[in-house]
Amino acid sequence: MFAGVIDLTDRRSGRLPMGARLALLEADDPGPAVIAELTAIEVHTLGEYDQVVLLRAWERQRAWLDAVQQSVLVAVGGPEPATRTGDAKR
């Protein structure tokens, strides 16, 4: 890139304004890399609008984690309800 030009698609750039970085993080595919970057952002240093964008980015990550967890729960629990023997004796 040319000196003084900011690549607005590089969310890891230290020169990118926080609002633009947050917008890229919010729009990016959920996953561990985005979660790591969101964790590094100190919410109290942000203005009110950017705090809301950060919250939306976290909500997207949470939804992704919930979906991952659901598939694990099905794997652990199985597709059919388990029948346990001996439960009536307890």
Layout of helices and strands:
Layout: H1 18-27, H2 32-39, H3 48-77
Helix pairs in contact: 1-3
Order of helices and strands: HHH
The main sheet comes to: none
Count of alpha/pi helices: 3
End-to-end Cα distance, whole Å, is: 70 Å
The rough form would be described as elongated
Residue share in β-strands: under 5%
Ranges where pLDDT stays below 50 over 5 or more residues in a row are none
Rg to the nearest angstrom? 21 Å
Could you describe the 3D structure shown?
The structure is a single chain. With 90 residues, the protein is mainly alpha-helical. The protein has a domain at 18-76. Helices cover 53% and strands 0% of the residues. It is built from 3 helices and no strands. The protein has helices at residues 18-27, 32-39, 48-77. The longest helix has 30 residues, at 48-77. The model has no long low-confidence stretch (mean pLDDT 84).
Summarize the structure.
With 90 residues, this protein is an all-alpha fold. Helix content is 53%, strand content 0%. It has a domain at 18-76.
State the main characteristics.
elongated
